[in-house]
Amino acid sequence: MSRYRILFVSDLHGSEVCFRKFLNSVPVYRPDLLVYGGDIMGKILQPVYPLGKGQYRWFPSGDRAVDFPESDLPHVERKIADTGRYSLVISPEEWERRRKDPEALDAFCRELGKDRVRAWLRLVEERLLPKKTPLVMNVGNDDTDGILEILRKEGPANLLVPEGQVVTAGPYEIFGCGYANMTPWHCPRDLEEVDLGKFLDRTAGQIGDPRRTIFDLHAPPSGTAIDLAPELDADLKPKTVSGQMLMTHVGSTSVRRLIESVRPVVSLHGHIHESMGLDRVAGTPVFNPGSVYFSGTLQGLVLDLEGDHVVNHLFITG
Prior knowledge:
CATH superfamily of the largest domain: Metallo-dependent phosphatases
Largest sheet: 6 strands, mixed
Oligomer: single chain
Number of helices: 8
Shape: globular
């Protein structure tokens, strides 16, 4: 079997520049397949205040205010989008009024997120479809069923969505799951471990030959080098000892059990931004490219497969 190359990223959380870098990497690395491992949407709505007389104000970090002319508004909105946030031009009074209804504000933010996903799908169609380059794109635990519906109904012909099923790309089958075991934030696609296990057991029956199967599972397997996250206190603040942050394993036991049972060619994961790396579970190589999307820096992974083996891997940052 000839060599098959995969370019894998995850957890870009709405970062416009990171997603464009992902697509722009295709001529450089020449992958046969692109894989996006979930958490497509951003999380934060950023207000931009009109001050009158063609002036605006925004707060790029903390309480530091930056005033700028109307001619710079597109540049500021792009900077906000590059960090994965969504911008809204709104008066301070109206912003404070909206903040009093968090559910409505969250729903509005999600609509902006859907608009950005649709724009990304148009980019995929424009840049990848002419060359017939397939993209496997799955949701993550921070995404919603609405995003999954957009991927399935509005994606171009080269978009494959493996959520809870097997899709075929080249000589391989990809099985996906965007759910994660429960987090302290109770995200839209968090499940209790027992329920995550039931979902995997219910859908994994579609998996065919493990020797040509690739896993695209958002949550990493527990007890590995790719599921380490800061240990949190009761206020959800990282615990430290002598100035050093304490880390703990937060991955899924159900995901680990599935890998041990099936033993696919490779298992691709995201979810834990701090845990870029690789490990092995029952002989299967497991990878997490990590994410620093908020900085505008893309982290990714290039994999070369031959048959049922990973013959090369390269973590990329740019």
